[in-house]
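Exam revision sheet. Question 4 asks you to relate a sequence to its structure. Input first:
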Amino acid sequence: MEATTTTIHNLWARVAPAWAEHAAYADARGAEVTARLLALTTPAPGERVLELASGPGGMGLAAASRVAPDGEVVISDVAAEMVAIADERAAELGLANVSTRVLDIDAIDEPDASFDVVLCREGLMFASDPGRALSEIRRVLRPGGRLGLAVWGARERNPWLGVVFDAVNAELDRPVPPPGIPGPFALGNAARLDSLLRDAGLQDVSVSELAVPLRADSFDEWWRRTSALAGPLAAILASQPDPVADAIRDRARAAAAAYETAAGIEFPGAALIGSARAA
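Answer key, structure tokens:
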């Protein structure tokens, strides 16, 4: 598992510059998910909040005003490069109650019962061992503490990314992501996510689906962002020689044609929203 964690860390570190460039877009794209998670977990003044697998930290930044003035938000990611982005964004916003840390979601280096709320938007599915990660989350939550998380739903419910995977699989004739590396749809089954939450000893478990369509003005806009931000997939795309990269793009363009509209391109999308409490 250590080798897998290192591989995942390195992959996300490589795409951190693109996430810095597109951080505002990522926040806008995830705004409805963020609002749902904050509504479910209700961070309150004086409480401590931990964001895990934060990327550029949009969830934690959104929570900061809710726990001010005496509460604290800790934004964390396994990749130091992502943490640095979140730290810079918090400083630019003048958020004195936000701090950042490099933390592994599979082994959270924080004391027992130290947070009132844990948030994780589109990160748990990349954990080497999601069951262990959820047990760690339960450990760091105070009694009655709340968890709010989002993962992508099933691949077929998210063609905005699924068509890229299909294009890469077809062109390279090998599975993407490679065996042993968790992908974005690893927790796309609601029943499995529910079971993982309960098996971790969490209570008041709820898992629901939220529609999160993706809209872009053009295929080129969608492709540019998706190919830059898609973690392990982005690294694979960036490593291909130009003729192969062009062939993958052409395959994706053909598949995406089914989602073109007069206003650009619109893909359906679905996230699974999970919430629970610590005993």
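Marking note for examiners. Strands lie at 48-51, 72-77, 98-102, 115-121, 141-152, 203-211, 214-216, 260-261, 264-267, 270-277.
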